Automatic annotation (TrEMBL):
A Gene Ontology BP annotation from the UniProt entry: DNA repair
Record flagged with keyword Manganese: yes
Protein name: DNA ligase (ATP)
GO molecular function: ATP binding; DNA binding; DNA ligase (ATP) activity; DNA-directed DNA polymerase activity; exonuclease activity; metal ion binding
Coiled-coil ranges from the UniProt annotation: none
Keywords on record: ATP-binding, DNA damage, DNA recombination, DNA repair, DNA-binding, DNA-directed DNA polymerase, Exonuclease, Hydrolase, Ligase, Manganese, Metal-binding, Multifunctional enzyme, Nuclease, Nucleotide-binding, Nucleotidyltransferase, Transferase
Length: 301
């Protein structure tokens, strides 16, 4: 099966032999979901997840004792991941090169899960050139209590604005409170330019509709508004990867959706780790074929 040929637009099947220990350990106590069930989710979605999470620097949210206990955000290898999880050198601000983590197959993915990973976050750049962005992400963060209806219409506003300047976008529900509006990029522009573009666009939207949006960092200014988190687009920043589980109540999953579905979806935590079969089916559907793919570069702003 592993060498079977697939249509060019379908990812290759991905299977792993990495053993998962403590399958019965409860990781999501409020819903009694175990490490084994989490591992089954990742094993099932590996083939549709690897095209996104693979071959880019990643950060992991690890919660070895479950999501209710101590979790940590891990960017570098502490030396314990073995040979299925790889390193890519990234020069830090202090001039030193640090080994960032990346994976490129199901064994790498499952090794991270075995090590207590719940969430996978990725840079917006691939390991071939970490200085050039391969996506823009507008992370729409609603203030507490804001209706999802407001987030939904915000997502459409971003779609329309980006479309008007020549960028096709794709929506993802995060499994949390908001939505990511993602513009794939052919890797050309480097981080300073990409961040500047995202910042200016976010500011322009906030200025034109200050009732609904803010791009300001102080929390006080986010009251009742959607914070356009343009900082996802700076060097070293990460965003949750498609099909990653979230370390939140009920084990929701970040999931690509269509713009059509955005019209009616009721919550960004619509999908959960029990939905792997449905997520696989969706990923192979016509409606989601080509999701996240577009050959485009940053326009002038
Ligand atoms: P939500 O829809 O609930 O906002 P989200 O994934 O967008 O979900 P945010 O809090 O907006 O969550 O965070 C945006 C991104 O910032 C995350 O996807 C993650 O990649 C990154 N991030 C989150 N926590 C940390 C952290 N402790 N350190 C560094 N980056 C983080
Ligand atoms: Mn967010
Ligand atoms: Mn955010």
């Amino acid at each position: 099966l592993e060498t079977e040929h697939h249509a060019a637009d379908l990812p290759a099947p991905a299977t792993s032999n990495v053993p998962i220990s403590n399958r019965e350990r409860v990781i999501f106590p409020e819903s009694n979901i175990t490490k084994g069930q989490l591992a089954d989710h990742y094993a099932a979605v590996a083939e549709i997840m690897l095209p996104w999470v693979g071959s880019r620097p990643i950060s992991l949210v690890r919660c070895p004792q479950g999501r209710a206990k101590k979790c940590f955000f891990q960017k570098h290898d502490a030396g314990s991941f073995g040979d299925k999880v790889h390193h890519v050198g990234v020069v830090e601000k202090n001039g030193h090169e640090e080994p960032y983590l990346y994976i490129d197959d199901a064994d790498g993915l499952m090794t991270c899960v075995q090590m207590g990973t719940i969430e996978f976050h990725g840079w917006g750049a691939r390991i071939e050139d970490v200085e050039k962005a391969d996506r823009l992400v507008f992370d729409l963060d609603p203030d507490v209590g804001l209706d999802f209806e407001v987030v939904r219409s915000a997502a459409f506003q971003f779609r329309d604005i980006l479309k008007s300047i020549g960028l096709e976008t794709f929506p993802m529900v995060t499994g949390g409170k908001g939505v990511h509006v993602i513009a794939p990029l052919t890797p050309r522009a480097e981080w300073p330019e990409v961040k500047d573009f995202a910042h200016r666009l976010a500011q322009a939207v906030a200025q034109s509709d200050p009732e609904h949006f803010t791009a300001a960092l102080p929390k006080a200014q986010r009251k009742g508004r959607i914070f356009v988190d343009y900082l996802r687009n700076q060097r070293g920043a990460t965003a949750v990867m498609p099909y990653s589980a979230r370390a939140r109540e009920g084990a929701p999953v970040a999931a690509p959706i269509t713009w059509k579905e955005m019209e009616t979806i009721d919550t960004p935590a619509h999908f959960h780790i029990g939905d792997a079969a449905e997520l696989m089916k969706r990923a192979r559907s016509k409606a989601l074929a080509g999701w996240g793919r577009a050959d485009q570069t940053l326009p002038d702003l």
